[in-house]
Amino acid sequence: MKYILVFLLLGAGVWCGHAQPRSRPNVIVIFMDDMGYGDTEPYGMTGIPTPNFNRLAKEGTRFTHFNAGQAVCTASRTALLTGCYPNRLGMTGALLPGAKRALNPDEETIASVLKRAGYTTAMLGKWHLGNRPPFFPIHYGFDSFYGIPYSHDIWPMDFTGKRITDMSDWRARWPVLSLYQNDTRVDSITSLNDQAKLTTTLTERAVNFIRTNKKAPFFLYLAHPMPHVPLAASEKFRGKSELGIFGDVIMEIDWSIGEILKTLDKEKLADNTLLIVTSDNGPWLNFGDNAGSAGGFREGKSTSWEGGTRVPLLVRWPGKVEAGGINSQLMTNMDILPTIAAATGATLPQKKIDGMNFLPLWLKQSDKGPREVFYYYFGANNLEGIRYKHWKLVLKHTSGSYAPQHGTGGKGGAIDKVEVPQALYDLSHDPGEAYDVQKVYPDIVTKLLGFAEEARQDLGDDLTNRQGNNIRKPAVVD
C-alpha cells in the first residue's frame, strides 16, 4: 500500500507539473552603443578575447542578418523600445542638448508592455529618447532608471577628455554630462576617469537588480554607453588587449556579460531568463583604432549600407532557444518587442507597430521568419534603400563615407559626402555591396520599387517630397 501511495503521489506531482503554466520568463536586453558586427569573436574579431560572448553563442543562437531600425542612436533606440520605424514616431537622428522633441509618452515601450503584465522594470545606462524630465525612462514604463540622458560624448570635452576652450566650437557650450537616478541628477561626469567607471558601475547595479527582484518576473534594459567614443576602461582592463583602448573596452563589456551570466546561474534564474544582446548600430569608423569593425560589410554608423545597420544579435533562453544555433533570417530590432510580448504573454501596444513576432523561429517551431521586407531610412525621413529577402535596392541619395581618412588616438578622421546612385545588390553573393546587378535582374528592381512606393505612402519620403499617411508626432519639449 505504501508503494502504491508513493506512486500515486509522484504521478500526481508529474500531472500537476504539466498542468500548471510555466512561470513567465525574466527578460534582459543588453544594448551596446556603436558595437560593430565584427567586434566579438563569434562574429569574427581577432585580437580581443571575448569568452562570455563566446559562451552566449555556444548556449544560444547567433543571428547573422539582424538590422537596427536606423544606423544612429536615438532612432535605433526608438525602434528597439517601441517596435516602430523611428521616423513613424518622429524620432530620427541623435538628440542633442536643447532638442525640442522627445519620444511621445503616449507611445508604449517594451517596459510599459511588460509592466502592464506584472513585471518589475528597470533601465540602466544611456537613454537618448528625451534630454530631461519628464521625458526620462520612468515616464515610459520603467520603475527605475540610473544612467545618462544621451551619448557620453555630448559634453564640453573633446574625444581625448580635454576641456574645449574655443567658444566657436558649439560643443564648448554643451552642459556637463550628468548622471540621473530616475528624474534626479545625482552626479556629474567630468573626465575620462569618470567615464572609465561606467561599465563597472552599471554592471554592479544590474547584478543587484537581478538579485533583488529574483522572486518575481523582471525586465532589465542595460544600455551600455560604450564602445562609442570617447573610450575609457577601468584599471582592471586598461592595457589588457592587443588592440589598445578599444580592445580593453570590449573586454570589459565582455566581463559585464559574464557577471550577469554568473548571477543568473548563482540565483538559479538562467533557465527562466530570456537574454538578448545586441547593438544600436555599426561602428563609427572615422575614429580608426578607437572604432570597431563592420565585419566586412560596407561603411558603418550613420549610413544605410550594411555596415551601418547590420549588427550582432545573440539570444539565450536555455531549453527554448537553440544552443549553438546560427540563424540567417532577416530580422530587425523592431521585432524584439512583439517577440518578447509573445514569450511573456504580454499584450501588444494598441497603436500600429512595425515589429513582427519571431518567437516561433526562436523556439525552432518554424524555420522561416515572418519578415521579408525592411526599409532603410536615414536623416529626417529619407528612404535610402529597400531589402526584400536577400535583395537590396539602394535608392539614389547622399551618404557619408568613411573611406578618405581614419583617425587615431581618439581623434576622428574626415567624413566625405558622396552621391550614391541607384543600385541592386544580391546580399547572398555580395554582402559587401560591391556589384550592382540591376541590369541583370530588372524584374527584381521593379518589385522593390513597388515596396518603396508602399513605404512612401505609409511613412513618407523626404527624397521624393512625400508625406506619409501614418506618421505620429513626437513630444514637444518646452
Automatic annotation (TrEMBL):
<comment type="similarity">
    <text>Belongs to the sulfatase family.</text>
</comment>
<protein>
    <submittedName>
        <fullName>Sulfatase</fullName>
    </submittedName>
</protein>
<dbReference type="InterPro" id="IPR000917">
    <property type="entry name" value="Sulfatase_N"/>
</dbReference>
<dbReference type="Pfam" id="PF00884">
    <property type="entry name" value="Sulfatase"/>
</dbReference>
<feature type="domain" description="Sulfatase N-terminal">
    <location>
        <begin position="25"/>
        <end position="345"/>
    </location>
</feature>
<dbReference type="Pfam" id="PF14707">
    <property type="entry name" value="Sulfatase_C"/>
</dbReference>
<dbReference type="GO" id="GO:0004065">
    <property type="term" value="F:arylsulfatase activity"/>
</dbReference>
<dbReference type="InterPro" id="IPR017850">
    <property type="entry name" value="Alkaline_phosphatase_core_sf"/>
</dbReference>
<keyword id="KW-0378">Hydrolase</keyword>
<dbReference type="InterPro" id="IPR050738">
    <property type="entry name" value="Sulfatase"/>
</dbReference>
